[in-house]
Amino acid sequence: MIQITKTQIGFLAIGCVICLILGLIAGYMIAPKEIELHSYNFGGDTDKLATFNSYAVDGDWSTKIEWNTTQLGDFNVYVIENFTIPNTVSNIKWEFKAYHRAGGLIPEPMKVSYWNGSSWEQLYILDDTEHVNEIFFETLDLPTESFSNGKISIRTDIRYSSHVVGGLLPHPPEQLWHYVEYFEGKIIMIGT
Ligand SMILES: [Ca+2]
User: Fold this and answer.
1) For 57-111, how does the pLDDT look when each residue is reduced to its tens digit (9 = 90+)?
2) Alpha helices (runs of H) in the chain, residue ranges in sequence order
3) How far apart are the CA of 138 and the centre of ligand 1, in A?
4) Is pTM, for the whole model, over 0.90?
5) Minimal CA–CA distance to 159: which of 51, 61, 67, 97?
């Protein structure tokens, strides 16, 4: 029969505690983490929006910037979101949520780019046949050059197009729409 002394139980308990602490540290190091938005700015036809610009960066994944759909024409709005990244990070992703109302009026109604230190590099393009008439999420891998200086800037361009077609018998005039609306985006990083 195997006998276990109180001393052995003590060592066993200490060993378990150490393993638990090491496990927690390892989990903390590899668990995905979000980092807070440092600053942002908007550009383009922001006067064509029906909502506050800030709905794109308010941290609320249920609010979005929306177009005033009574207007006709082609417009573009972009938001640039800036983050400060710890220099120990090795893996960064960008996740966003958007809505695509498809209508075949414009190609590439949404683009996402990152700043490489001297120019904007394209990371993602939404094709007009993707995510048709639905809310969608995308998670994109960011290349090392996008955060090698401890900062990262993401630019999201969304477009709007609306035109009246028809008007000749037997087709009455009809207003068509095609646009993307943007809810929110965030950096996800792996590392410490
Ligand atoms: Ca929002």
Assistant:
1) 999 999 999 999 999 999 999 999 999 988 788 889 999 999 999 988 999 999 9
2) 6-30
3) 15
4) no
5) 67
Q: What is the number of other CB atoms lying within 10 angstroms of the CB of residue 102?
A: 20
Give residue 182 CA to ligand 1 midpoint distance, Å: 8
Q: What is the pLDDT of residues 15-63, one digit of tens each?
A: 656 645 555 555 545 555 667 888 999 999 999 999 999 999 999 999 9
Q: Compute the distance between CA of residue 162 and CA of residue 175 in angstroms, rounded to an integer.
A: 7
| Beta strands 134-141 and 151-165, pairing class | unpaired
Q: Give the integer Cα–Cα distance in Å for 172 and 5.
A: 92
Structure tokens at 100: 């695509």
Rounded to 10 degrees, the C-alpha dihedral 162/49/116/99 comes to: -60
Q: Are 114 and 146 a contacting pair, CB within 8 Å?
A: yes
Running DSSP on this structure, what letter comes out for residue 55?
G
Separation of 60 CA from ligand 1 center, angstroms?
Answer: 4
Closest CA to 157 of 130, 190, 123: 123
Tell me how far the alpha carbon of residue 68 lies from the centroid of ligand 1, in angstroms: 17
Report CA(97)–ligand 1 centroid distance (Å): 9
Residue 133 CA to ligand 1 centre (angstroms): 19
Confirm if 64 and 99 have CB atoms less than 8 A apart.
yes
